[in-house]
Q: What sequence folds into this?
């Protein structure tokens, strides 16, 4: 994917509304045929970025480059970019067929070609025979499919998707994720997908762009972003993570929880303070004294696939996901392999997320300092 | 228990039912009664037959009403579109200004045009400075149309504005996104979606325009005789309640037919956002 030519290049994009910075110097290159997800909490600027690419919004400064050409001044209707809107925005006065044909009629295509194209699109989204149905008579999932067909009918180079599955229930959402990914691979079109759902991002994308406070925090493949997060925000936002204060004494040697460990990271200054990320599923459980660190179990939750155990080690509550059972009050040993410790430079997000001492999923969300109150 | 509450709801509704019977149904029955009887109260169809003499007046009235309505629509539509797409405070102020004349007496508003259009009125006095005129601005068909448009324009603007300000903005974006220029967006999306508003506005301007008599008398100077004038004459001058009633009845039926035709075009949209119809 990275070998494909760059199709969209955002350069130093800045946007403010009423003196609030919405986007702060965003730089992003998107390659032809790539499935890119803009991921972040609401208010992070991901939808604004999408609207700038669509042409609904002009950046205060910076350039939007499409295949090498600056398209800052090109209005939305002249861009080879199509949007699938959050609430579908289907035309209520037209039936399914005419909704899909809308863009084709504007292209002044022949009636016969329009008919063939609409039929092809209906079968692509599994809505054969729905052409004459009224929009109001469709379910949410069916409306979603019409919106997809309408956007794809005009042969866009880039498709923009603004939380398109947000209004669907979980089961349908999972199915549509697979279907969207299939459609994207089948057609080979660039998809730029906006979501706040990290699972959706991880399972669908070629590239994930993690955003917060109008800035890009991390650009990388799903495995990159999960395994090698750039900072504490990325580590906390995507998946569960134990983020510990540490000191990098020298290459391949890190100290946290009062002990020195071997690791695989290098290139830090001598004795540089760092954040250490350890994913709960990467921690191995041993009998007390047999691991690298010992701690007392304070909570055990059965999750089906594994147990979620909270362990107090040196007054820091770790989360561990393991198939081994433990009882509250047990003292257990834990061990982490060197390549499963991920060392990050200190950032503005260091120390914001704490440990799992007051852990509950709802509480986690409520106390997240980076999620602003208002919606995007 | 059920009985008690249904009695209570009947009691609460009774003033409205009484109102409707007294002021809507009873007058209609009286119109029907007078239209189908002669001066002595005996049943007759002569009044209805006599209407044939007024067919050209009916056609003229509908023509005047239609012209005034179309002009109102042409003025109101762009204005309402513009209004719906400006800032909230400007919108509030403009809507106030549109409604402001409606708080004054209809008679005074119409009368004031005489002082503007008359031979010694504001416009002709101004033109006299340049040695022009006086132009015959009053007592003609154009003055009547002007009076109708001026008086009933707010009833066209408000329903259009209501429909357009409630229109989902993302529909316009979706149309642009699919390649529609500004003009195409209006033609293919805004216009079809504002049909309920057009229908309400049409009704609220057309109906009073067709049946007006005051505007024709004051601004038409008796030159233009519409059906409203004839009906008024039958009641006030000729004292022929029976013919007046049957003319009213026919006018009512004709307006209903016009609205029925209008409805054929708007039926599919179920009038969401429209004020009337």
A:
């Amino acid at each position: 994917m990275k070998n494909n030519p760059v199709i969209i290049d955002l350069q130093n994009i800045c946007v403010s509304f009423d003196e609030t910075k919405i986007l702060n110097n965003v730089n992003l290159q998107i390659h032809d045929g790539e499935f890119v997800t803009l991921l972040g909490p609401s208010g992070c600027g991901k939808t604004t970025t999408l609207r700038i690419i669509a042409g609904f919004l002009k950046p205060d400064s910076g350039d939007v480059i499409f295949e090498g050409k600056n398209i800052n001044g090109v209005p939305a209707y002249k861009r080879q970019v199509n949007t699938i809107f959050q609430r579908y925005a289907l035309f209520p006065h037209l039936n399914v067929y005419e909704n899909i044909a809308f863009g084709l009629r504007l292209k002044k295509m022949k009636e016969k070609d329009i008919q063939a194209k609409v039929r092809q699109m209906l079968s692509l989204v599994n809505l054969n025979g729905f052409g004459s149905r009224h929009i109001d008579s469709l379910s949410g999932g069916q409306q979603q499919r019409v919106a997809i067909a309408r956007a794809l009918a005009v042969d866009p180079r880039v498709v923009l998707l603004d939380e398109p599955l947000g209004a669907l229930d979980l089961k349908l959402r999972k199915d549509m994720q697979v279907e969207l990914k299939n459609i994207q691979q089948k057609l080979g079109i660039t998809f730029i997908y906006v979501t706040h759902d990290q699972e959706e991002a991880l399972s669908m994308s070629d590239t994930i762009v993690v955003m917060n406070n109008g800035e890009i925090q991390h650009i990388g493949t799903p495995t990159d972003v999960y395994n090698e997060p750039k900072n504490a925000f990325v580590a906390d936002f995507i998946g569960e993570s134990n983020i510990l204060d540490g000191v990098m004494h020298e290459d391949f040697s890190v100290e946290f929880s009062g002990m020195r460990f071997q690791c695989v990271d290098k290139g830090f200054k001598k004795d540089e303070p760092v954040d250490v990320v350890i994913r709960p599923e990467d921690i191995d459980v041993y009998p007390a004294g047999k691991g690298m660190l010992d701690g007392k179990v304070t909570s055990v939750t059965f999750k089906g696939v594994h147990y979620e155990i909270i362990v107090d080690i040196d007054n820091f509550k770790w989360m561990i996901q393991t198939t081994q059972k433990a009882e509250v009050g047990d003292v257990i040993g834990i061990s982490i392999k060197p390549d499963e410790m991920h060392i990050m430079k200190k950032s503005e997000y260091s120390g914001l997320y704490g440990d799992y001492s007051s852990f509950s999923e709802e509480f986690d969300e409520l106390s997240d300092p980076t999620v602003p109150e208002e919606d995007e | 228990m059920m009985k008690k509450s249904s009695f209570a709801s009947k009691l609460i509704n009774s003033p409205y039912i009484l109102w409707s019977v007294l002021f809507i149904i009873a007058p209609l029955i009286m119109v029907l009664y007078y239209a189908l009887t002669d001066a002595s109260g005996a049943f007759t169809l002569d009044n209805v037959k006599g209407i044939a003499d007024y067919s050209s007046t009916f056609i003229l009235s509908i023509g005047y009403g239609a012209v005034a309505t179309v002009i109102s629509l042409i003025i109101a539509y762009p204005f309402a579109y513009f209004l719906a797409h400006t800032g909230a405070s400007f919108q509030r102020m403009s809507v106030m200004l549109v409604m402001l004349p409606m708080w004054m007496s209809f008679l005074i508003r119409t009368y004031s045009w005489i002082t503007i259009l008359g031979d010694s009125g504001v416009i002709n006095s101004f033109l006299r400075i340049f040695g022009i005129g006086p132009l015959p601005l009053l007592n003609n068909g154009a003055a009547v149309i002007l009076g109708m448009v001026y008086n009933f324009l707010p009833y066209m603007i408000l329903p259009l504005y209501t429909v357009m300000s409630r229109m989902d903005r993302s529909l316009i974006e979706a149309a642009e996104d699919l390649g529609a220029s500004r003009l195409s967006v209006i033609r293919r999306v805004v216009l079809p979606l504002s049909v309920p508003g057009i229908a309400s506005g049409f009704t609220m301007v057309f109906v009073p325009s067709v049946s007006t008599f005051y505007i024709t008398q004051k601004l038409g100077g008796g030159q233009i005789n519409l059906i409203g004038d004839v009906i008024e004459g039958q009641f006030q001058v000729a004292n022929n309640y029976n013919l007046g009633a049957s003319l009213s009845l026919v006018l009512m039926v004709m307006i209903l037919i016009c609205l029925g035709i209008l409805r054929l075009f708007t039926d599919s949209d179920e009038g969401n956002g429209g004020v009337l119809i």
Notes: Chain B is about 75% helix and 0% strand. Residues 268-277 of chain B have pLDDT under 50 and may be disordered. Chain B touches chain A at residues 168, 170-171, 173-181, 184, 188-189, 192-193, 268-269 (CB under 8 Å). Residues 2-35 of chain B form the longest helix (34 residues).
